[in-house]
Write a structure and sequence with these properties.
Layout (H helix, E strand, L loop, with lengths): L5 H14 L19 H13 L5 H15 L3 H7 L2 H8 L3 E2 L2 E2 H18 L3 H8 L5 H16 L18 H11 L23 H9 L12 H11 L11 H9 L32
Antiparallel strand pairs: 1-2
Helix pairs in contact: 1-12, 2-9, 5-6, 6-8, 7-8, 10-12
Length: 286
């Protein structure tokens, strides 16, 4: 397993200080749950926002904005009190990449029914998490409970199917928001150890980690094995909070400050330059 050298760790902390701040929320789905004060609204909005966080940020943010406008100022209550006509009205005409109106209706119905059965979204997660303190099992349990409650509708791509190799990027991002509390993340779920979290394998996080040698360079998307390996590598920086760097790594890419290839106008200013494959030296041993 790659480990993070002291020199790279220092540079990653510099990068963290640069990108881990509220000004980057404007380009992050986390901005939506942070609009609400009630934890029940935050929880519902967070799961919906995370579920659609695929593709370009500039594409899915307006889609989410329209959805939450329809759900009103108290989304959890809206779902709790809705009838079938309202679910259909909220989702009519919806389409975003692989997701259809029926997928969104399944997602909303499933969340509403899970809330009715369990009183919230955390209890089914805890049923999967607690036996072995494995967050991926908790997330699979939550997703499965929503899928089952949504029948005969299917949330489709909005919820992962729990395949063994799936890194569950969007659900791990949702969980990061729920568990951590640092002024950006919400920290409204108790009883979950931050050290158990897995880093969400966003395209930017994956690419930058590979360029730094924290993950092996390879073709294809990330796997659950990659998420576990990267989390373990970052735990050498902060064993109690290994996903602390996630927001900053992602926004290094989202902001355009890392394009995945050498750029004369950008790379020399990057604090990670000396450790990047596009810089002057290789990976984690520096």
């Amino acid at each position: 397993m790659p480990s993070v050298s002291p020199k790279l760790s220092t540079k990653l902390e510099t990068m963290y200080a640069r990108y881990h701040n509220s000004k980057h929320l404007a380009q992050d789905p986390l901005l939506f749950p942070r609009r609400y004060e009630n934890p029940e609204d935050q929880e519902v909005v967070a799961l919906l926002a995370a579920s659609m966080a695929f593709g370009r940020v500039s594409a899915f943010l307006p889609v989410l904005d329209r959805l939450f406008s329809k759900l009103g100022p108290y989304p959890a209550t809206s779902l709790d009190q809705a009838d079938d006509w309202e679910f259909s009205a909220w989702t009519d005409g919806f389409v975003y990449r692989f997701a259809t109106s029926d997928n969104l209706k399944g997602m909303l119905l499933g969340i509403a029914k899970v809330r009715k059965e369990y009183g919230g979204l955390q209890p089914p997660f805890m049923q999967g998490y607690l036996p072995n303190r494995q967050v991926i099992e908790g997330l699979r349990a939550l997703a499965n409970s929503i899928r089952l409650a949504a029948e005969p509708y299917d949330p489709g791509f909005l919820l992962p199917l729990g395949r063994p190799t799936d890194p569950a990027k969007r659900l791990n991002m949702f969980l990061r928001w729920m568990v951590r509390d640092d002024g950006l993340d919400l920290g409204i779920w108790q009883g979950i150890n931050k050290a158990d979290l897995l880093i969400p394998m966003d395209v930017h996080v994956t690419r930058i980690s590979r360029m730094l040698g924290l993950l092996p360079s390879k073709k294809g998307g990330p796997t659950l094995k990659d998420a576990i390996a990267l989390t373990k590598a970052l735990s050498t920086i902060d064993p109690n909070d290994p996903v602390r760097l996630d927001f900053a790594l992602a926004h290094m890419g989202i902001s355009g400050d890392c394009k995945g290839e050498f750029a004369d106008a950008i790379c020399p200013k990057c604090p990670l330059m000396d450790f990047c494959v596009h810089g002057q030296g290789p990976g984690t041993g520096r």
